[in-house]
User: Fold Ribbon-helix-helix domain-containing protein from Paracoccus sediminis.
Amino acid sequence: MTDRMAIDLPLMTPPLKRSVTIDGHRTSVSLEEAFWRGVADAAKSRGLTRAQLIGQIDHARPPEVGLATALRLFVIAELAPR
Assistant:
């Protein structure tokens, strides 16, 4: 039997769907709460609303990458040491 160290996991939630308006068009995005918090924190640190930051990410992402994926990758990149 292998001795495993206990791991502390963050609070895990199923994806939460929220509506956002990008360029005057409503869309909905499903993200886990931790990612929604990451987007909100990043927007606040930039002096933007969450919708404004999501719009910027939407415009910058390649068309083959979904918006939810782009948001998750953005939050991970924000947390990475520089």
Remarks:
- Residues 63 and 81 are 27 Å apart (CA to CA).
- Strands lie at 16-22, 25-31.
- Residues 16-79 form one domain.
